[in-house]
Amino acid sequence: MAVEPRDSRSVPELLSDLLRETTELFKTEGELIRSEISDKITQLEVGGGSIAAGAICLLVALFVLAQALIVALGSFMGDAWAALLVGVVIAGIGVALLFKGRSDLSPSNLSPDRTARQLRKDGQLVKEQTR
What we know:
By secondary structure, the chain is mainly α. The chain is 88% helix and 0% strand. It contains 4 helices and no strands. The chain has helices spanning 11-77, 79-104, 107-110, 113-130. Helix 1 (11-77) packs antiparallel against helix 2 (79-104) and helix 1 packs antiparallel against helix 4 (113-130).
Protein backbone atom coordinates (compact mmCIF):
# COMPACT_ATOMS: atom_id res chain seq x y z
CA MET A 1 0.00 0.00 0.00
CA ALA A 2 1.52 3.28 -1.13
CA VAL A 3 1.21 6.39 0.98
CA GLU A 4 0.56 9.63 -0.92
CA PRO A 5 2.87 12.53 0.00
CA ARG A 6 1.09 15.36 1.81
CA ASP A 7 1.61 19.04 1.13
CA SER A 8 3.60 20.55 3.99
CA ARG A 9 2.22 24.06 3.53
CA SER A 10 0.03 25.57 6.21
CA VAL A 11 -3.60 26.60 5.72
CA PRO A 12 -2.75 30.34 5.60
CA GLU A 13 -0.11 29.62 2.96
CA LEU A 14 -2.59 27.59 0.93
CA LEU A 15 -5.20 30.35 1.19
CA SER A 16 -2.61 32.95 0.22
CA ASP A 17 -1.63 30.87 -2.84
CA LEU A 18 -5.28 30.42 -3.76
CA LEU A 19 -5.94 34.15 -3.52
CA ARG A 20 -2.82 35.00 -5.54
CA GLU A 21 -3.60 32.44 -8.26
CA THR A 22 -7.25 33.51 -8.43
CA THR A 23 -6.24 37.16 -8.75
CA GLU A 24 -3.75 36.27 -11.47
CA LEU A 25 -6.38 34.20 -13.26
CA PHE A 26 -8.93 37.04 -13.30
CA LYS A 27 -6.26 39.49 -14.45
CA THR A 28 -5.36 37.20 -17.35
CA GLU A 29 -9.04 36.70 -18.21
CA GLY A 30 -9.56 40.47 -18.16
CA GLU A 31 -6.73 40.93 -20.62
CA LEU A 32 -8.20 38.20 -22.82
CA ILE A 33 -11.65 39.78 -22.90
CA ARG A 34 -10.21 43.24 -23.63
CA SER A 35 -8.19 41.79 -26.50
CA GLU A 36 -11.14 39.88 -27.93
CA ILE A 37 -13.50 42.87 -27.68
CA SER A 38 -10.89 45.03 -29.40
CA ASP A 39 -10.66 42.45 -32.20
CA LYS A 40 -14.46 42.40 -32.54
CA ILE A 41 -14.63 46.22 -32.71
CA THR A 42 -11.97 46.23 -35.42
CA GLN A 43 -13.92 43.52 -37.26
CA LEU A 44 -17.07 45.65 -37.01
CA GLU A 45 -15.29 48.77 -38.30
CA VAL A 46 -13.69 46.97 -41.24
CA GLY A 47 -16.93 45.16 -42.10
CA GLY A 48 -18.98 48.35 -41.92
CA GLY A 49 -16.53 50.26 -44.09
CA SER A 50 -16.44 47.50 -46.67
CA ILE A 51 -20.22 47.32 -46.77
CA ALA A 52 -20.52 51.10 -47.25
CA ALA A 53 -17.89 51.27 -50.00
CA GLY A 54 -19.32 48.24 -51.76
CA ALA A 55 -22.84 49.62 -51.54
CA ILE A 56 -21.82 52.93 -53.13
CA CYS A 57 -20.05 51.19 -56.03
CA LEU A 58 -22.92 48.79 -56.56
CA LEU A 59 -25.48 51.57 -56.48
CA VAL A 60 -23.76 53.41 -59.33
CA ALA A 61 -23.40 50.21 -61.33
CA LEU A 62 -26.99 49.28 -60.61
CA PHE A 63 -28.30 52.55 -62.06
CA VAL A 64 -26.38 52.04 -65.29
CA LEU A 65 -27.25 48.35 -65.65
CA ALA A 66 -30.89 48.88 -64.76
CA GLN A 67 -31.23 51.55 -67.42
CA ALA A 68 -29.56 49.29 -69.99
CA LEU A 69 -31.89 46.43 -69.07
CA ILE A 70 -34.96 48.68 -69.26
CA VAL A 71 -33.95 49.83 -72.75
CA ALA A 72 -33.35 46.22 -73.85
CA LEU A 73 -36.64 44.92 -72.42
CA GLY A 74 -38.54 47.99 -73.61
CA SER A 75 -38.43 46.77 -77.18
CA PHE A 76 -40.27 43.56 -76.17
CA MET A 77 -42.85 44.74 -73.59
CA GLY A 78 -42.94 48.51 -73.52
CA ASP A 79 -40.80 50.88 -71.51
CA ALA A 80 -43.13 51.22 -68.51
CA TRP A 81 -43.53 47.46 -67.97
CA ALA A 82 -39.79 46.93 -68.45
CA ALA A 83 -39.02 49.59 -65.84
CA LEU A 84 -41.50 48.04 -63.40
CA LEU A 85 -40.09 44.52 -63.86
CA VAL A 86 -36.49 45.66 -63.40
CA GLY A 87 -37.41 47.73 -60.34
CA VAL A 88 -39.17 44.82 -58.64
CA VAL A 89 -36.28 42.40 -59.27
CA ILE A 90 -33.71 44.88 -57.97
CA ALA A 91 -35.83 45.65 -54.89
CA GLY A 92 -36.06 41.91 -54.11
CA ILE A 93 -32.30 41.52 -54.34
CA GLY A 94 -31.82 44.59 -52.13
CA VAL A 95 -34.12 43.25 -49.43
CA ALA A 96 -32.29 39.91 -49.40
CA LEU A 97 -28.93 41.67 -49.05
CA LEU A 98 -30.18 43.87 -46.21
CA PHE A 99 -31.38 40.83 -44.26
CA LYS A 100 -28.04 39.06 -44.78
CA GLY A 101 -26.08 42.13 -43.63
CA ARG A 102 -28.27 42.54 -40.55
CA SER A 103 -27.73 38.88 -39.69
CA ASP A 104 -23.95 39.20 -40.09
CA LEU A 105 -23.84 42.21 -37.75
CA SER A 106 -26.14 40.76 -35.08
CA PRO A 107 -24.90 40.97 -31.48
CA SER A 108 -24.71 37.17 -31.20
CA ASN A 109 -22.08 37.10 -33.97
CA LEU A 110 -20.04 39.84 -32.29
CA SER A 111 -20.07 38.56 -28.70
CA PRO A 112 -16.77 37.36 -27.14
CA ASP A 113 -17.65 33.64 -27.16
CA ARG A 114 -14.16 32.28 -26.48
CA THR A 115 -13.69 34.46 -23.41
CA ALA A 116 -17.11 33.56 -21.99
CA ARG A 117 -16.36 29.86 -22.49
CA GLN A 118 -12.95 30.24 -20.83
CA LEU A 119 -14.43 32.16 -17.89
CA ARG A 120 -16.94 29.35 -17.32
CA LYS A 121 -14.12 26.79 -17.34
CA ASP A 122 -12.05 28.91 -14.95
CA GLY A 123 -15.01 29.35 -12.60
CA GLN A 124 -15.54 25.60 -12.55
CA LEU A 125 -11.82 25.06 -11.85
CA VAL A 126 -11.90 27.52 -8.94
CA LYS A 127 -14.95 25.74 -7.51
CA GLU A 128 -13.17 22.39 -7.76
CA GLN A 129 -10.02 23.77 -6.14
CA THR A 130 -11.89 25.24 -3.17
CA ARG A 131 -13.72 22.03 -2.29
